[in-house]
Design goal:
Elements: E1 2-11, H1 16-30, E2 56-62, H2 68-77, H3 83-88, H4 90-97, E3 100-102, H5 111-128, E4 131-138, H6 155-162, H7 172-183, E5 188-190, H8 203-208, E6 212-215, H9 222-235, E7 239-249, H10 251-257, H11 260-278, E8 286-290, E9 297-307, E10 313-323, H12 324-344, E11 349-350, H13 369-392
Parallel strand pairs: 1-2, 1-4, 2-3, 4-5, 5-6, 6-11, 7-8
Antiparallel strand pairs: 7-9, 9-10
Helix pairs in contact: 1-2, 1-12, 5-7, 9-11, 12-13
GO molecular function: inositol-3-phosphate synthase activity
Protein name: Myo-inositol-1-phosphate synthase
Pfam families: Inos-1-P_synth, NAD_binding_5
Length: about 400
């Protein structure tokens, strides 16, 4: 095994976020892109032993068979990525594409068998490239929340149900998460609002897996801004009465979130931080609209109404416009680097400090961005020391 090489296994490997991250990793490795937007490239992380960009090997699962380089060219046509960059790293995209597998499905088989097949793909990838570890990151499309079932609250009943042929009990995100943490022993992050490991009967399984995990739902734009601004109102004693938001987006995310069932989990995760920071009496209407002609550009509008001294009215309006995938991709790369560090240091279970990257952080109730940033850097420095100690031992 080569300690210097780490696999990144994307669930949703041909989607916009994974494609952008793969192009980004390739461009960084080739020296034709700057690490703009990568937290771990900042001076605060000087001295923290993180994998170099050329140390990663990319693979993954997807349901789409469109070649990765073609997906990247489509993103370039839409203006997200420079076409010259895509062509300069096309050979690396082809190499990554060769490591993408269709999501295994068994006709009338058990979901336990499906978990095993997905884990086999991850283990095979690791062995084929002589990797020390593989970090699995779910960046697939948002799933509808599954209807609650009694098995979700009883571990033994859930295990028994998973073994039955023809029973589709768990959503795909949960199958992929279990394949990673229990089947392949791989560090895992859920960058989507899909339920993943959020089923009560699986909490202990995730904690006992012996690998670091992080989630959930990447904090990239509007929610990032909210978790910066909301503590300001609280600190200055200005009472927020309402915080309304509207999101306009097209592309694959827009089409996915046009489904009322799929958007439910997204809306919940986007508002949870506001309520934790400002209180549950704040009115927080929020809606997401699919506007196909916008493509991959996302625009978010917020209107904040607060109460000031002597019953005065305070209004703040914000507009945030960006390619959401180019906001997400560097964070995904950061997570791959930091989960590698956590794994090298022997950490396991939810890494609370990685909540910095998420709307609904596992293992943490902290949402204020400035505090999260301080906690992340402190954790990285402590973990670097622990990693060195573990390697010496």
């Amino acid at each position: 095994m080569n300690e210097g090489r780490t696999g990144v296994w994307f669930v949703g490997a041909r989607g916009s976020v994974a494609t952008t991250a793969t192009v980004g990793l390739a461009a960084l490795a080739e020296g034709i892109a700057r690490p703009v937007g990568l937290v771990t490239a900042g001076s605060a992380f000087d001295g923290v032993p993180l994998p170099d960009f050329d140390d990663f090997v990319v693979g993954g699962h997807d349901v789409d068979e469109t070649p990765l380089v073609e997906r990247a060219r489509r993103l370039a046509t839409g203006g997200m990525i420079p076409a010259a960059t895509v062509e300069a790293v096309a050979h690396r995209l082809d190499a990554a594409d060769a490591e993408i597998r269709l999501v295994p499905r068994t006709a009338r088989g058990s979901q336990r068998r499906e978990i095993g097949l997905r884990a086999d793909d991850i283990r095979s990838f690791r062995e084929r490239h002589g990797l020390r570890r593989v970090v699995v990151i779910d960046v697939a499309s948002t799933e509808p929340l599954p209807a609650d079932r009694p098995e979700f609250h009883d571990h033994d009943a859930l295990v028994a149900a998973l073994a039955q042929d023809g029973v589709e009990l768990l959503p795909s995100s949960t199958l992929s998460a279990l394949a990673a943490v229990t089947g392949a022993g791989a560090p895992y992050a859920c960058f989507t609002p899909s339920i993943s490991l959020g089923i009560p009967a699986l909490h202990a399984v995730a904690a006992d897996a012996g690998v670091p995990i992080a989630g959930q739902d990447g904090k990239t734009g509007e929610t990032l801004l909210r978790t910066v601004l909301a503590p300001m109102f609280s600190s200055r004693g200005m009472r927020v009465l309402s915080w309304a938001g509207a999101n306009l987006l097209g592309g694959g995310d827009g089409a996915t979130l046009a489904d009322p069932a799929a958007v439910e989990s997204k809306l919940a995760s986007k508002n949870r931080g506001l309520h934790d920071l400002l209180g549950h009496d704040v009115v927080t209407p929020l809606h997401i609209d699919n506007v196909p002609d916008l493509g991959d550009v996302k625009t978010a509008w917020d209107h904040v109404h607060a109460e000031g001294f002597l019953d005065t009215r305070i209004t703040l309006q914000t507009t945030w416009t960006a390619y959401d995938s180019t906001l997400a991709a560097p964070l995904v790369i950061d997570l791959a680097r930091l989960l590698t560090l956590a794994d090298q240091a022997g950490l396991s279970g939810p890494i609370a400090e990685l909540g910095y990257f998420f709307k609904d952080p596992w293992g943490s109730e902290e949402h204020a961005f400035a505090r999260q940033a301080d906690e992340l850097v402190s954790w990285a420095l402590r973990t670097a020391v622990r990693r060195t100690t573990a390697q010496v031992a």
